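ingest -> validate -> predict -> emit
validate: passed (alphabet ok, no gaps, 154 aa)
predict: started
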Amino acid sequence: MEGLERIILEQPFFAGLGPEFGAAISGCARNVRFAAGEYLFREDEPANEFYLIRQGSVALELHSPGQQPIVVATLREGDILDGSWLVPPYCWTFDARAFELVRVLGVDARCLREKCEADHDLGYELMKRFAGAMGERLRAMSLQVADVYGPPRS
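emit:
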């Protein structure tokens, strides 16, 4: 467990969390790997885990019937995958597919939600981090949409 706690507290996403929070998170965590092309999760499936990428890159994809998936974001080491585990109905809003071998820290969502309910300081610290990360992701996606669908460049 000490190894996971150290890994968690060394991740930029969790920077500044105290050791008591690292211990709480590591109690719900495990190391997971996905092969190139493998899906970490699919849209509308239950968001039972959240992932922090430790190695490799992951595509967040949207699907439209009869069309190829659209990559809306590429995530890399240090990035988190979605905040769907944090708010009801706890379902993924995208597909996430490994571009290459990916190693992630997987955190059991129910376990961590229960710990956040029991310790509101932990919940508040995580909510601030996830809100910030999701805000950054939304800004990046809006720039991508503006670039694709905006007026042609001269």
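The mean pLDDT is 87.
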